[in-house]
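Q: Structure tokens for this one, please.
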Amino acid sequence: MPIAGKTKTLSPEEAAVAFRIASSSSIATIAFLLWDICITVDQEVELIWSQPFSFANVLYLIVRYLPIVLQISILPIGSTEPEGLTFSHRECLIWQLYQLVATMLLFMAVEYILLLRVDALYGGCRPIRWIIRCLYFVEVTCMIVGISVSAHGFLFDARCGVTDTPSTAVIFGVVTPVFQTLLFALTFYKFAQAVKEGWGRTPLTVLLMRDGTWAFFIIEALLAANGILNFVTDYPYSSLMFCWLLSGFSFVVCHLHPSKLDQRNNP
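A: Here is the predicted structure, written as tokens:
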């Protein structure tokens, strides 16, 4: 995620190697996402484009296509080092905010899709529905506040590499794992309750628990890896996981889209 990371002075040779690695990583994530889109386009046509347009479909389109648009748009600056090209602090701040806002929009869509799955697991239970939606609102509010408060605390080098990050920016990186953990805990609790009551082997319950589990651990692993790289390595190495995070979210959540529940639950 572009909210952290440090920059140290690199020799021209070191900088060339670093940006070559970052560029290769970014191109690899774009290729991976394009591959996933291609192999699932038949399902997308059947479950999204052939159905009445809905809010869930809007979420799908955001999660599916925003990451690749964002990655392609940041590739020329984020993963290359144009010779002789420098940027002002204001330009770098706009560049940073663009990435942060787009990432926040992606996270919001991802979280809401996962929220809908928990809602389905609890059969639309009104208290659970209101609780998770209120917590979702709190999460979104925290992300917005985190970005707003931190915006003018970022420092950049001439290539828009982040040289200093305000401590308040950590809000952006904490609320998502916390909300993810809550959703997984609710999923696991319902599954344990279902097993105890003897209906834990129903197709929908098994599907939601199985997919929810691998999705949770992949998302948490991506968030953790991105955070570790941001805080222990220097730019541009610190940004290596950012594009993988975007692609990973798209891959995971698009395979869990609510529109697929009925089809995958039926023989």
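A few notes: The beta strands are 155-156, 162-164. The CA atoms of residues 3 and 44 lie 32 Å apart.
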